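Hi P.,

Sorry for the delay on this. The queue was packed all week, but I finally got your sequence through. Input first:
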Amino acid sequence: MAFVLSQQDFPENLRHIAQSPQALYGEGDPNVLHKEMVAIVGARRCTPYGTKIAFELAKQLAEMGVVVISGLALGIDTSAHQGALAGGGDTVAVLGCGLKHNYLAKNRSLREEITKRGAVITEYEDHVEASTWSFPRRNRIISGLSRGVLVIEAGLKSGSLITAKWALEQGREVFAVPGPMQSPMSQGTHQLIQQGAKLVTSVDDILEEIPQLRGKVAECKKMKYNPGSGSDQEKILYFLANSVSPVSIDRLVEASELPTDRINGLLVELELDGKVKGLPGGLFMRG
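Then the structure:
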């Protein structure tokens, strides 16, 4: 479904950024633009490591009810969109050209899937072609719609660093995933971390910085899992299986709504069965 939004129809966070677009042209569901979003951006010529991290983090965010927004480019953008779709969530792609321009034919099927489960948007009229200046400008929309921007692999001259700069100017959180010291694709992300971006090793690092997302995740968990159904062991195994990082007892208590002494007993039983593995620091993961 095609749509056009004027400024008065924009989400509030986009309406109030500097150089807010005059209009948005889109395909898909315009309502998805009003949901909580995290941007995931990075290098087009990324490594297998970057591809995997982008896919997994986007998938986890989508499973938690967070919309993943990116730019539909090859590399990290593509993996982020694919991860969000694999997680059963919504995703938004922002183009640096008009909707009718045949941009990136390789991602045509992905774009079609995004319009079914989210939206493809642009500030440019239908037949405007992509250019060297249109992509840096579209990045302000990616960051403007999001609560935070996560950069996964970027060179020192990467356009992803422009998105991070827009994010800082707009008062958004900036996150970066570290990589191998000698990789050119780590130079930009390491620079961001040195400048104050939060280092990310799991989705939890993102949620800690954005209260609105924590509320969204709690709401999504209640919708996806009824604490009254299944055995107590099944509840624990469910939450551990759906976490990308080890989980503390306090988080299991919050997620399962079971008392602490019951959680401790269940963890002992599950460890003896080899279904759960205890880690230093009082953390646990699936066995």
